[in-house]
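Hi X.,

You mentioned you wanted examples for the new student's onboarding notes, showing what a folding record looks like when two proteins sit in one file. Here is a clean example. The first protein comes first, with its sequence line followed by its structure tokens.
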Amino acid sequence: MTKTAFITGATSGIGEATAYEFAKQGIKLILCGRRLHRLTTIKEALERLTDVHILNFDVSNKEAVKTAIASLPTDFKHIDILINNAGNAHGLDPIHNGDTEDWDAMMDINVKGLLYVSKAIIPQMTARKSGHIINIGSSAGKEVYPKGNVYCASKHAVLAITEGMRVDLNSYGIKVGAVNPGMVETEFSKVRFKGAEAADKVYTGFKALEAKDVAEVIYFAVSRPPHVNIADVLMFCTAQANSVTVNKSL
């Protein structure tokens, strides 16, 4: 039976790359994001490969999440795979100079948004006693680095939630895992470093991960046999050893 995947943050970066990877494998797609024009463009590109439905909403808006998921047509209501990818990073300020609006944005989307979407979808998985959830974390959820404070906190929360989900959903046979990339050169980076020029400087001198690299690992995880669950993946580009050690001569 053809599986259906629900992907948040599908308008760019890892979410978009995952949509393309899943479409190549014939997985039906529900693509979610805040930019309707991007969703429409991606839908048109992928419909030659698989069935695609788009939902235009903000994961940090609890009521919008409920309304959007309740609106799914019959052919897309059965969700087998949930990819909680929507996330953001704002600012690189030390904690005492941090912008509280940046803090709110990161916690609202990275943590609360993941919870709102999961809460709306998990009940159907527990009812069927099947399903697979992949939460997209970050190496920032494994270690804290200078000026990473609240972003790192949000991604530590993603890992804690993932582990809690895996325990609570174990008796239902639902797989839960996290994929945690290090440095990935995407639009996400331009937001974090507040401009393309600043982001480009960060990635100069070495080959960072690309979104498609992460998407391939996500597909590997969801394509394992029923008895195999990839619980946690930390992935770096070859040049990166940890959050602060990057060989810029590669």
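Then the second protein repeats the pattern, sequence line and then tokens:
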Amino acid sequence: MNIKLILYCIFIPCSIWIITSTNIDKIFKKNKIMQIHMMYLFLSLTLSYFIVNFLMDLYTLLATV
């Protein structure tokens, strides 16, 4: 199985958990629940993308040394 897929499966829930602990609801208008959830989703996907790519780059860098 692809290691990136496994890392995504690990870090997407972690990033959702981290982002939902913040209080970014105040920057949205009232009763915009769907937009807030979409923002959480996109932020968590972006954060997990950066984390997985960083770990893969670090792995390849250390594997070549």
